[in-house]
Structure formats: structure tokens, C-alpha cells
Amino acid sequence: GAVVSQHPSWVICKSGTSVKIECRSLDFQATTMFWYRQFPKQSLMLMATSNEGSKATYEQGVEKDKFLINHASLTLSTLTVTSAHPEDSSFYICSARSPTSGRAYEQYFGPGTRLTVT
Amino acid sequence: AQSVTQPDIHITVSEGASLELRCNYSYGATPYLFWYVQSPGQGLQLLLKYFSGDTLVQGIKGFEAEFKRSQSSFNLRKPSVHWSDAAEYFCAVGVYNTDKLIFGTGTRLQVFP
After folding, report:
1. Among A95, B1, B22, B65, which is least packed, fewest CB within 10 Å?
2. For A32, which of B43, B45, B99 is closest by C-beta distance?
3. Chain A contact for B90, CB < 8 A?
4. Could you tell me the pLDDT band of residue B66, with boundaries at 50, 70 and 90?
């Protein structure tokens, strides 16, 4: 149980275009989802917290106009990288809050999406 | 501010050998601590967690970790490593009164036959 999927797993786009990444909780409802960015050989950096039906909360230093997050349903959150540039190339990972825990620390992670901007 | 340090970037062990991955945290109160494993093409999988109680925590896949408040450590151990344990391991701490996790920089484990 508690499976989180991401689509696509890998995407290449041209500089200046936008790309959307989907994060789905497959067998549970997730009121809260998180988006992370991971650079090669580095840790996961939290970008934003996504709550169903409300605006996302972005971490300091994350451009909310560049990284648009929408959590329109209890099983889907999307991250759109707008006007992508090569420096946006990274590994993007989402997670969803465990439905069985009173603490959001317990998160289930998606497999990640590798974005390459050329 | 809370932080997590994993001093070892890369560790290599022989299959069957014992393993200890180090994790140190900085936090003013009792932390909520986690170990995750990341394999290529797969999402982070929770190995074990510590919230309170017994300081020796058992996890999946034969892993255990011990919380030592005096050393601000939460080291991950396994008595006998299998080749399938080769992966990236992350220690994380929950940020008090928020939904967030702070991750360490990770330790890449290589296992030789």
C-alpha cells in the first residue's frame, strides 16, 4: 500500500518551454504532497508543500512563478517548470503524506522525474 | 536550525561484512529521525524511524539504528550486507511543528562480492 507514482520518469525539453510533472497517490488520498529537487550526488531539497485545494507553500529561495504547483485533487499534484532553462535540469521527487499517521513526517516517495533542459 | 550530517559520502564493503552508516543531527529537543534508502529508478523507501521510546530501532531488510542523545547520532547498522543493499542512504530529521523533513547529503554504499 501507499504507492506514489510520477510521470514522466524522464523528460527532455528545449530551453524556454514548459514541462509538467505529475505526482499521484495510487491507493490512498493525500491531502499534503511535497516536491523536492535533487542535484547529482546531493541531498533532497524541499521546494514546496502542496495542500489539496489551496496554494502551495514554497521554501525560501524557490521561485513560485517558475515552479507552479497545483494540487487539484486528493490523488494528484502537478509541478510545472515554466520557461525552463538548463540550470533547471535536475531530478524532481514528490512525496505524499502518510494517511495513517498523525505526523506528516511519514512520507511516501515517488520514483522521481529526471528533467533535462537543452 | 535543525540539520543532518552524514560524514561518509561513499562507503565500500564486501558482501557479508557488517555495515555502519553514520548520521549526526542538530536539534534542540528530541528529534524525529529517519533512514531512507534510494535505489536507481525507485523512490525513497523508509527503512526505519525513531520517534521516542527504545533507542534501538529495528527496520526492514535487517537494518537497525541506535539513537544516542549524548552523541547526537542515529547510526544505521546491518550485521551482514547483501549485494542488493548497494544504494544511496539518507538520514533525515523532522522539523518540529511542521510537515517537513530535512535530509542529510546521503551515503552511497557499494558492495563487492
Report:
1. B1
2. B99
3. yes
4. very high
